[in-house]
Amino acid sequence: IFMTYADRSEDAIYVITRAMVDAFPDYKTGAPGADGMALDKQNFTWVVPYHAGAVKAFREKGVWSEAAQKHNDALIARQQVIAAAWKAYGANAPADEKEFAAGWLKARAEALKKSGMDVIFE
Asked: Is the pTM above the cut of 0.70?
């Protein structure tokens, strides 16, 4: 699994993704688990959204589908709801660590429910 921040350059992530896909035959036996980078082993409807640069590379390879795009868009929307809830919660959050954690879980759940999204973890 390769992870990056959403604010990273689309071009940079595209180039890295293309390099990993194109060079796969050269490194697939070089390390334990490297075979997991094969295109046929990618899960495009997983729990973390794909970066636009990676999506561009996967589209070029013909493995990115409309279903993957729909799922990815939903994950990005979910993250936006959670980020907005975090910002709102942080403005008046309690200083006590336990109260903070409990309050955050409640605020997160309320924001997700209000947006019609599954809470998953409560």
From this structure: yes
